[in-house]
Amino acid sequence: MKIRETFFILISPFILVVGCTPHSSIDARKPGSTHISGSSISTNTAVLTDKDIFGNETTLAVSEEDIQAALEGESFRVPMNSAVILVQSGSRAPEAMIQQEMSKYYTVSTFSGIPDRQKPITCNKNKNDKNDGSNALPVENMNYMQALRYIAAKGHQKAIIVYNGTLQSGKYDTALKSTVWSDYKNEKLTDAVSMRYLIRFTLVDVATGEWATWSPVNYENKVLPPMAGSGTSKKETSAADLTEQQITQLKQRTYTAMVKDLVNRYQ
């Protein structure tokens, strides 16, 4: 099996989960914090977005002084055996294999990577207004990560680790003389293909809200396609099982590299 190593950066679409009160105290220590109104809610709630993970920093006006101040800040650490929360974007729970790998170094709790879809809320701050007929309390205006940091703080977790992965299949294009990649959707593999599992993860310090994000080296594996045959023969079934096995091995290898990279950087 031939394996090549490449780097990549994943960019995800935006989703935002917000309320309507003007300020959340969880990030009060972070300068230049702004808040976004409930009208910005997206209809796509399948995965976490950059705005869910990084908060309002993705929309702030950043000056050169802000950049220099960030460079002077101290990097945070996640010592071995620290309690952490692990989240897989778009999934109710992370895959078992990465939980096992992460548990070799940290005390791991998991949390859903599917943000709740909140309806736009109209806030009425006039306590004397009795026309509302509702006793509902105002909802705090916070994004997904602010809420998760609060949950982690209550549980005395040190850090939050969020990751998203995309499995892709690639076929060599003789005209382009390169491999053309597309997302793998469990389609039948009729020709010999390559597979790769692209992953990006973000580490967030619960106490400060500081974060770091990057993509580890990814691996490309040559995968055997299902064998040609009539109907659903044993040969086809065996080949399909072999493909699934190799995909699992590819993910396992990627997860192992990801966790080792994280530990080496932040222990």
Share of residues in strands: 15-25%
Coarse structural class: alpha+beta
The low-confidence parts are 1-44, 137-141
Give helix and strand order, one letter per element, not per position: EHHEHEHEEEEEH
Rg, Å, rounded:
22 Å
Overall shape: globular
Largest beta-sheet details: 8 strands, mixed
What distance separates the N and C termini? 33 Å
Q: Please indicate the count of domains.
A: 1
Instruction: Quickly count the helices.
Output: 5
Chain-averaged pLDDT? 74
The helix content, as a percent range, equals 10-25%
Counted beta strands: 8
Pfam families: YafT (PF25851)
Organism: Pseudocitrobacter cyperus
InterPro entries: YafT (IPR058961)
Protein name: Aminopeptidase
Structure, described:
- It is a single chain.
- The chain has helices spanning 50-54, 64-72, 96-103, 144-154, 234-266, and strands spanning 4-6, 83-88, 107-111, 159-173, 178-183, 193-205, 211-214, 218-223.
- It is an alpha+beta fold and 267 residues long.
- The chain has one domain (4-266).
- The radius of gyration is 22 Å and the shape is globular.
- Strands 1, 2, 3, 4, 5, 6, 7 and 8 form an 8-stranded mixed β-sheet that branches.
- Helix 3 links the parallel strand 2 and strand 3.
- It has 5 helices and 8 strands.
- Helix content is 25%, strand content 22%.
- Helix 3 (96-103) runs parallel beside helix 5 (234-266).
- It comes from Pseudocitrobacter cyperus.
